[in-house]
Design goal:
Helices cover 61% and strands 0% of the residues. It is an all-alpha fold and 163 residues long.
């Protein structure tokens, strides 16, 4: 005897405010992927594994957000052809600073997403946001160390004051 399948409950629709925050977070993921391409040209080969891991994490999160938005019927914005770094990247220190800024921007954007999710209705999105803030804070430690920036760990990752 077969049992009728029960339809899964569709995820709750994103509010306009939450959708805008997710789209902004996607923008920071696009920018981070681009930034790591630039960073890789200036940091020594000893940092290649860290650069690759960070870039891959941003690509995977970007792809997860694109899929999430598609399920919501939102056409996600594509990446820009290039991004303007906040300061010129000319050596290892300035490259590490760009990576730090990229991670701080990602943390701030995903913190905004986390603040807009409800614990009982935003499970997947909340988990994605919290994981992103944690990963960005952790990854930025490497770049802060190379750039000679302190503190290595911001007191409140994602609050926008760490860069």
């Amino acid at each position: 005897m077969t049992t009728p399948s029960t339809p899964s409950t569709p995820p709750p629709a994103l509010s306009d405010d939450l959708r805008a925050a997710v789209v902004a977070a996607l923008g920071t993921e696009h920018a981070a992927v681009w930034s790591y391409g630039l960073v890789s040209a200036f940091l020594p080969a000893a940092n290649a594994a860290a650069i690759t891991a960070a870039s891959l994490a941003h690509r995977e999160r970007r792809d997860a957000v694109v899929a999430l938005l598609a399920r919501e019927g939102v056409i996600p914005p594509t990446a820009a052809a290039a991004y303007r770094p906040p300061s010129p990247v000319t050596d290892a220190t300035s490259a590490a600073l760009l990576a730090t800024v990229a991670e701080d921007d990602v943390a701030a954007a995903w913190r905004a997403v986390a603040e807009r999710t409800e614990a009982d209705t935003g499970g997947e999105l909340r988990r994605l946001a919290l994981d992103a803030v944690t990963a960005a804070a952790t990854t930025s430690v490497t770049w802060r160390r190379i750039a000679g920036r302190t503190p290595l760990v911001p007191a409140f990752p994602g609050d926008g004051s760490a860069s």
